[in-house]
Amino acid sequence: MPERGSLVDRHVGFVHALRAAGVPVSVAEGLDAAHALRVIELGDRESLRAAYAATLVKKPAYRPGFDVLFDLWFPASTSGLRAHDRPEPATAEVKELREHLAGLLTGSTDQELREFAEAMVERFGRQQAAPGRQNWFSYSVMRALSPETLMAGILRDVLQGRERGGLAEKTVRQRVNSNLRRFEEAVATDVRRRIAEDSGIERIARSAVRPPIDQIDFLRVTKADLARLRREVYPLARRLAARLTIKHRKGRRGRLDFRRTMRASLQSGGVPLTTHFKPPRPHKPELVILCDTSDSVSSFAHFTLLLTYALREQFTKVRAFGFVDTVDEITRFFQPGADVVEAMTRLANEADMVRFGRTNYGHSLERFAERYADAIGPKTSLLILGDARSNYQPPALDVLKSLAARSRHAYWLNPEPKQQWDTGDSIASDYGTIVPMYECRNVTQLTAFIESIA
């Protein structure tokens, strides 16, 4: 824990690091956290963590990054780094340490597991980098102890001859795997702490925390990110459907109510000065999605296909089309009940979206107009997803203008930063003069787009 005299500096640095990592912290929330520190026991590190989390963390998605930064700015312990290397551990010593770790994985408190992790980082985690300098690594600790190989021995000792494969074994496996994840995280936390002591907290903080899930760039998402994004997609799909329905109702009046209009005209001598209309019938909007699936935006395409899958439940009718340099309808891959991952695999293997493999928006638009003109009508919202980079091919602006004119609403979501529009082969502004184009690089910007169309 930092001394009392340095607590203000630690607080200010911690709040700044949270903001730099994408966790929104207002001035008022920073002051709330400072006030909370006056009513807790500062020596109790977990109370300090809870006070900061209660005042600064507004979403569950922000909590992992918060915990990483808290452990850096308010470490459980500090250590004096020694430049000399320890001798290589003896086989007997490693065996004894592995046996002790097996006992901890079977059952231990957080403090016991953390203290053992810190000792193992001190013992195995240091690597000499240059004279007078040393680096710290998690992998060398895990390689020395190989905790993933302890399961068989733990099961043998705990079950003691009882039948394998039953509930008892399943319970033991779950407990050991959970404790193993806790141990790995404790090792990683202590490694980050030691690097911070050597290199400075700010430096390690910039590389230790991934952005919150709602701020991860669609063009850089990983498979693990996509799994987490699936939870964000369904609420957004519901909100998008609701917004388009509201806009439809605002933009359209119902049929003339002749009886009410004539009755009102009696007050003005039979002259219908005021006309009355019947309320429009409630409906779910129809949606057509036209999605660039080329390699340059493959990560964005994966996310938009997740969105397409979720949108099917919110609209009366959804038709989805994918293109690279020609276009194919891909609605069939997202039938109700289909697994979304399997659907994407089938789409990549079976859909006819490629002729020569170079993105061509103009040819894709022309082909869409030839084959699927009936997809767009006066009740349709058209959503185009892509970076508007067409390899210097003719853009077919007149075709896009015709499609947009036939639809009720048309929007274009571009995953590139605005400052990159119109550079190289981008023709974003040309398309943007026909269909309103929005920068859409992450969930936060997608949410802002949905809110803006009401």
UniProtKB/TrEMBL annotation:
<dbReference type="InterPro" id="IPR036465">
    <property type="entry name" value="vWFA_dom_sf"/>
</dbReference>
<dbReference type="InterPro" id="IPR011195">
    <property type="entry name" value="UCP010256"/>
</dbReference>
<dbReference type="Pfam" id="PF05762">
    <property type="entry name" value="VWA_CoxE"/>
</dbReference>
<protein>
    <recommendedName>
        <fullName>VWA domain containing CoxE-like protein</fullName>
    </recommendedName>
</protein>
<dbReference type="InterPro" id="IPR008912">
    <property type="entry name" value="Uncharacterised_CoxE"/>
</dbReference>
